[in-house]
Amino acid sequence: MSGGAGKGVAERGDRPLNGDAGRPSVILAANASFPPETVAPVTAFRLAPVALLLSLVPVGWGQDEPAPADRPLTDPAGAAEDADRPLRFEDLYGSARLDLTGSYPRGLTWVGPGRYLTPAEQGSPEVVEAATGESRPAYDAAALSTALTDAGVQGQLAEVFARRPTGVAATFDDDRRRALLGSGGDLFAVDFGGPAFGIDAEAAPVVVRLTETPQTEELPELSPDGRTAAFVRGFDLYAIPLIGAGASLHPGPEVRLTHGGSDLLRHGKADWVYYEELYGRDWKGYRWSPDSQRLAVMEYDDRAVGAFTVLDEAAGTDVARRPADSGQRVERTRYPKTGTTNPTVRLGVVAATGGPVHWIDWATDSLPGLPAMGREAGDGGGLIAHYGWFPDGDRLYGYLQDRVQSSLSVRAVAVSEEGELGEPTELLTESHGAWVESPGDPEFLPDGSFLLASTRDGWRHLHRYAADGTLLNPVTGGPWEVRSVEAIAVPGGEAGEASGNEPWIFFTGTKDDPVGEFLYRVRPDGSDLTRLTPEPGAHKPQIAPGGGFFIDTYSAHDTPPRVLLRTGAGELGRVLGEADPPGLKQIARGEWQWVEIPVPAAPRTDGGTDPAGTLHGYLLLPPGLDRSNPDADVPVWVMTYGGPHTTVVRDDWASGRGWEHLLATNGIAVLKVDPRAASARGWAPAWEVHGRLGEQETTDMIAAAAWLQEQPWVAGDRIGLSGHSYGGYLTARVLTHTDRYAAGIAGGSVTDFQNYDTIYTERLMDTPAANPDGYALTNLSRKAGDLKGRLLLIHGGMDDNVHPQNVWQFAAALQERGKDFELMIYPRSRHSIAGTHYRRLMWDFVRETMLEER
Question: What ranges does the record give for the region Disordered, renumbered to this chain (predicted)?
Fold first, then answer.
């Protein structure tokens, strides 16, 4: 589940999907004076009656975040002018769908301290001078597309890359002088003729085919200097030097860097659990050194890891091959379930020209090695949660964690020019709270110090360390969170360059609103902290080299996406574009209201007490609803995710929140809410649920229903609940622990956390041997006889993340206890489920249970 227990739109993860939002805001009108710059469903069946998880919500379920204390609780976003008809299902999922997102500039890329590249829908990309807005073609896209197709790149990919070079899965060298992309399983190099996509070069781009093999070359990456291409083939790492330049560019001899790779002993490509839970759903298991001379490569040994089989029962049967062809497609994936053996991993260094791999032994007399960081002999040991290079390429760092991630050790190993390894040293350790999250890449400052994120104070903040790991100072602090470091910029120079100027640290965070995300800058000593993006909502900035400008793309629940050019100090330069979704003019919109819901203290199963607290969320109400009318009798559908520190209540446009407005404009109010452990209000609330996933969250969802039943306009006997992945687990759990919800839709649900993987689950629950009572609380089959209300279970038949085993176990338990329920299996879907059939299924179920109609 990568950080949150679940998968959804993409597959799973702790980062939930965005929801859907409101109407254009007054901000659009206020800035109107700035002229914008040019710039199938799968087969499925339904059983009724018959017989989640961790990622995010599937497309359209939506999610957001709470509001700050100084924001008014009511912030209505009324219907668009002259739009009074309800949103229809066909408006969102029919053949003539309404556009609720609109168009706005995307894919803008800085190509220097004061210039950026604008992709082209047609024609050639443009390079734009930030200070003046003057633009010109960057290169001849038609000529590049022809060169790509002539070299063997597939036609559509060639055309898209030529017009939008950063919009496809290509990698670039540091200067963006060269690109490396894959097509049809082979690799191709592009030489633009000069840095920054060759925008100042006279020569036309040159394309060279690097491989032509029956195997697939995958996970390619150019070296920082653009002179070597690395890739994985057959679970081993390879490199190809690029010789010459321009028209003389050609590949050198291929070099195999690792040997003996297989599906069970992988070199340079992650196994499933590392991909899913530690590497942000990135399969790449190697990293170039900054000097382009060496590569750090991971080895994942899954030979002792248990396998899980997923069947494609809907695959066609080849009649001509009977009886050998059974019509089933069988997939076996090494998947470590809780309490079982983890992959055994190690990190090595190899020269880009080949030679032996030097494998790192992280242990010394005073530092435990990975095997000792497990729970018992033979369980795979600890984890290499992250790794990378120091800027000079003379040292590697690695984050080592014990099996249940209660601590983190940041260690460094010197690497000589010959590839020989020094003795490891420990730079720092983290051990606080119920578990320690991997902090991601350190950010290096020109003076050799580095920044690292930490949740030691219960909030994610930046701390600065000397090169030897000595803590120098906290950079940020307080009851809010740093989300990501966007750039370290030295005025008058490129990021990371030494200069007499003090660098700025640009980062995004929630200092001014826990449901928003804003850009700030601060000095390394923590001084001069300044917010650079004044508008409410969620900001996604791109900082120019040197920090003199940034492009700010943002939206809010009542503001469709806008793209602004600002100076490094936050001053508005120009409006580059703003979405004006045409669909908004045709429909009514629900009315938005931020809410805070009190939760009373409640007893815990272990004899303790969960203290009273507050839930944060928003309501989307039917247009024109009189909330003081006791005869309104409006049903409410509640949506959540609920995984620890995985909020869904956000202030962003989220593609227009069509699914939520569909319900609201048809008479069903929507409540999007986070349990306390899931909100963006620090790590301490998340740590509270350690070892007992679902218990406090269930209390919170019961409190949400109770609060709704106290509202005069609510039909208290018609409240529904839905979620996917962890949200599916929580939905099914709530309906087996209370009768306050009349109906629920549980998608992709974990129904027993002993069925889920080691790294995600043991971080939050410890091992089953150490916490049997906690795991028992997550086994929904034990509570199947207590099911209340109507329950629709939905699952992908080929879900390789939250296995179908979960839904079958729960369905069997429900049947054994004589409980009616509904079940939909999408035979060829994975953890993410989408399509018109899926949406229609849920729409019909919601109307049937909330409006008593279909």
Answer: 1-21, 65-85, 319-342
